[in-house]
Write a structure and sequence with these properties.
The protein is an all-alpha fold and 364 residues long. The protein folds into two domains: 19-100, no CATH class; 114-363, MetI-like fold, CATH 1.10.3720. Helix content is 75%, strand content 0%. It has helices at residues 16-56, 61-66, 72-81, 88-100, 114-149, 154-168, 171-185, 210-217, 220-257, 260-267, 272-310, 315-324, 328-356, 358-363. α11 (272-310) runs parallel beside α12 (315-324). Keywords: Cell membrane, Membrane, Transmembrane, Transmembrane helix, Transport.
Amino acid sequence: MLRRPGRGPGGGADGAPSGRRGLALASRGKSIASTLLTVLATLFGLALLTFVIGRTMPIDPVLAIVGDRASPEVEAAIREELGLDRSVLVQFGIYLRDLLQGDLGRSVMTGDPVMQDILRFFPASMELATTAMVIALALGVPLGMLAAAHQNSIFDNVLRVIGLLGYSIPVFVLALICLLVFYAKLGIAPGTGSQGIIYQGMVPPRTGMITVDAALDGQWGAFRDALSYLAMPAILLAFITLSMIVRMTRAFMLEALSGEYIVTARAKGLSQARILWRHGLGNIAGRLLTVLAVIYASLLEGTVLTETVFSRPGLGLYLTRSLMNADMNAVLGATLVIGIVYVTLNLLADLGQRALDPRARGRA
């Protein structure tokens, strides 16, 4: 039996389906390669930036280690051990090599490797930031959708004013006001710290998150105590984050509600709730995910001031004390970790947007 001319092995004319699949795979491969190159270039730039900052700061790392009373021989030996007597390019190569091995140097303040310190303090910052993000997300997305559905109403205007206040007032000012009102005046919230004195040292550290560790160990008294100390800074950060989430959700939803498919859904008699949650939210989910990833990353960075005011033992307090003690290894290490978190969350958000939004896949 003769095969019709022009039919390729893929079943279409001249193998067109196979050709289209090949082009799609090639396009996806180029997109993945481009994303990986962008991430690597960003990480390299971040490492270069922290290296330059460390070499241009008016703080001698050798003097920070040995003090200003050490002999010239000791200073020279330490400088040689750290590779500071070599050329700048060689120093940068050594810096990159150490980074790839997870070596961020040793902290002058604690005497421990910086990576060990970060692994000890970072979970507490993640606990605070994640709690704030969950609160803000649970409230911010529904409020932003309702504000868009009732555009220019009293409800919408009140939300916009509250959002403007939360976006404008510095976080340390709000933190001090909260401590003054709820702790000093009303006495309904605990003070600074992360645990009461009676519970300190009772919960064995597993994850580094006190509430999680207390729950895993079944110490519910310690869990409630840690939660009470977590509540005020988490609600404070959630309020600031809520302002941004409401604002972005409202803007995205207003654009979505003007689409023709929404007009069609209303013509079919669908309820307002179904239009908002199924059609509206489904349309903006990809873009909203990208914004939420950036907000969460900024929360991890924004815990610096909050942890300092509330004296919570997280990465922010560690970074602040390192700055005060001129501990540049710790400062640069913490800064580098925050930058890596930013890059990672943005990459995950980009992949999530492509999975949720077919238009993003088309642009890729």
